[in-house]
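User: Before I run my own analysis I want an independent prediction to cross-check against. Here's the chain; please return only the structure tokens and, at the end, one sentence I can use as a sanity check.
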Amino acid sequence: MKKKTKNLTHAALIAALYVVLTYAANMFGLASGAVQIRISEALTVLPYFTPAAIPGLFVGCVTANLLTGSTALDIVFGSLATLLGALGTYALRKKSKYLAPIPPIAANTIIIPCVLIYAGIPGAWWYLALTVGAGEVISCGVLGIILINALRKRADTIF
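Assistant: Structure tokens:
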């Protein structure tokens, strides 16, 4: 019972943190559109430490997308991209910390441009993939690795 409570608490905290960070980025116009740097996407590396991050990230992304006025397609497919990225990170957790950001970068770079095109954002798929991918590299690749390095020393205590 104690482990279930701990996992549920971790998932809820990660979801809440994802929402707060997305909402903050949205206030500066960074959370959506052709060029997006969601600071909250750095959290997609957390499945490297705990599987509880997977539902936390998914619920957090759904909630953040609802609160920031995303389209229905972005709520569904953007959240699924985050879920796929989190699952991929969890699958690669034993390989290398440097592989952890690759699944969320790839999932969002492939899926989000399709959502943006359907939502009426002008641009070719390759251009939108480039802009979304660049934002994901910053959020997941750079900030995510910094987060992993910061948490790694205390991972046993935190997770």
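Sanity check: The first helix runs from residue 2 to 27.
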